[in-house]
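Work Package 3 (structural annotation) set out to generate three-dimensional models for the target panel prioritized at the project kickoff. During this period the team completed the workflow that converts sequence records into discrete structure tokens, so that structures can be stored uniformly alongside our sequence database. As a representative example, we reproduce one entry of 215 residues exactly as it appears in the project archive.
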Amino acid sequence: MIPPRLAPLLDQFDLACERLSSRMTGPVMDSGDGTDTPVGPMTDAEYFWEPVPDCWSVRRRTDGPGARATLLAGQGDWGRDAASYPHPWPPPFTTLAWRLSHLTELLALRADHTAGSHGLIRADHPVSGDAVGAVAAFDAAAGAWRKALLSVDDAALDTVGYCTYPHGSDAEEPFIDIVWWVNQEVLHHGAEIALLRDLHRGMAHGRPGAARPGG
């Protein structure tokens, strides 16, 4: 049974993930007014698009990190631009690939640190080198986090440090606050990804201000 306090947060998470997945894959998306707007699947060109110089992105490990990055986070042939603290200032602009990889990683790792091995770290997480793989990885990570949420009871929601995720404030926060925070991550990174898709399409047509919703 879902704790009453968790139910609205779970509903919000489900809606945010569904809208983001539809926005990236199509064939239609909810434009916000309840109508279906046609949208095509995200391409590799969009995934890797760098709208300004010196973006942080996802790169082949053999190519090394980008400007102002000192390492490529993750596992596999691809990695995500990163740097040890203190991070560069002003913060680098990050590509759609970077934002989606970051979001997928935090969902997958928090799922593991809530209802899994409690052992995964950033270096264990595979980084996707193409749009199709990245979308599939996001869907899998979202599903894992949702499954983890279904395993908790009301007492767990009040437990400080219930999630042992090592790359955030989880050790100092009640679990219900972490659930709320994860929702905000999906909402704001989902909005960023949608905007980058719109900008890429607008730039491709030579009219950045005239873009319609949809990819």
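The first strand starts at residue 28 and ends at 30.
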